[in-house]
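This section describes the prediction task in plain terms. A model, or a person checking by hand, is given the sequence of a single protein chain and must write out its three-dimensional structure as a string of tokens. No templates, partner chains or ligands are provided. The sample shown here is typical of the held-out split.
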Amino acid sequence: MYTQYFHLQQAPFSIAPDPRFLFMSERHREALAHLVYGIRSGGGFVLLTGEIGAGKTTICRCLLEQVPDNCQIAYIFNPKLSVAELLRSICDEFHLDTSRSDSAKNDIDALNTFLLAAHAQGRNSVLIIDEAQNLSADVLEQLRLLTNLETNACKLLQIILIGQPELRDMVAQPQLEQLAQRVIARYHLGALSANETHSYIQHRLMSAGANDHALFSSAAVKRIFQFSRGLPRRINLLCDRALLGAYASGRQQVDRAIVNLAAKEIYATTGAVKFSDAHKRFAILALLFLISFLMVTLSINGTAGKIFFHAAPQKSDVPPVPSASSAAHETNPPIEEPASLIDRLPVDETLALRALAQRWGSMIEGDPCSAKTAGGLQCHRSTGGLADLRALNRPAVLRLQDSAGRAHFALVTGLGNHTIALDLDGVKHVVDSFALAAIFQGQFVTLWRAPVGFAGAINPGDQGPAATWLAARFGLAAGSADLSQAVRAFQLTQGLRADGIGGPMTIMMLNRATGVDEPRLQSLPDNKGS
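The expected answer:
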């Protein structure tokens, strides 16, 4: 209804799990990387959990679009089944003829024969179960028994369980201890931060063809985050209803007041948010406008006209709506002008790099970029600017240039949507990232720990400890022919060039995805006003 009004190619905030709109936050990249790792590992269970509406199913659909050719998937999205029904469903998904089967044993025998044949042909078999929190204890035990189907070298079936947080509690029960011991990877998908919520909304709008990236004011985005608690499905519901409200009232931008009205309509919570008489009048006018529009539409289309209303969210999917007075308020640090700080920044890069090395627990007197003195750390130089730095999400030293052309070096410790935190003699200074662009040409240095034996890159077919380390990260044997393909699949999930080579960027992103404890950038609040 509002897409033409806002010059959009399609509705940007549909709650359908469309991979085209997948917003790859750091959490979503890590979740997808865990699933990619799961389909390439040697059997066992992979658990992906998250709150309702966090984006689990969308990530799963994205995974299904990029599975390797040698991988066959059985996908079950309605797991409220008995043991017999589950076995029959798995056989059906793998296209096995069990029409003559009259027992669970016959189904298991047919499945085992199929998996052995697939393994002999070099194909991996993966079972994905969505909404797995609905599985009964008996069914979970049967799934564990299915992982006993194996050869002398490997398991024949990889099982990925996707569900709500209670799935973790289920697996932790004493009677399922044997299953828990077979979980080779697990990841809990959390909600988006305030900054990520802003980026998420902008991503959805741009994916829908928006030309105006300011359809939501900064104050409106903050309010959406407060109501949605950073869960994508709730963000979609609020944004969709808010755009409809802006359209109905002839507004070109969604502001805080429109979001409040949209939230009251969606959550149907009385007393949580106080509305002024002006807000009430606006709501009535918007409703009358919509009724008039619908009447005209129906009169034109006659009996062929059809109206579809969004179903109200289930109670379990709706958070209590915070009031304006009780909503969490972030105290934003003051923003300084980069030009006022640049003369206080060191002109010797080594000094800034030593401060960076200290964040890695390394006290160095010499040049931290010297392999002999860095204690296992290596320097990675980039010209990719804040985009690369945001992707790597680790402290770095920026090269800045003053008005006289002299170089200064600043240690970055935090990033926001519009702000960047610089460390100067142990004191944090926050500057506007747009103002920083005038003195920053995109060059920065960060530190990382390379695997033993790393010599610049790990190429397909390489031997040695570095290649063995990389293969182990993907659950593969050293020298595996599948390693290059596994690296390419991972690089695709991280937005890297998919060349199958384990270079510094790939290894840094892999360490982050697998939970390696390394220094990270602080997430800064959005200091921009509405």
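For orientation: The first strand starts at residue 44 and ends at 50.
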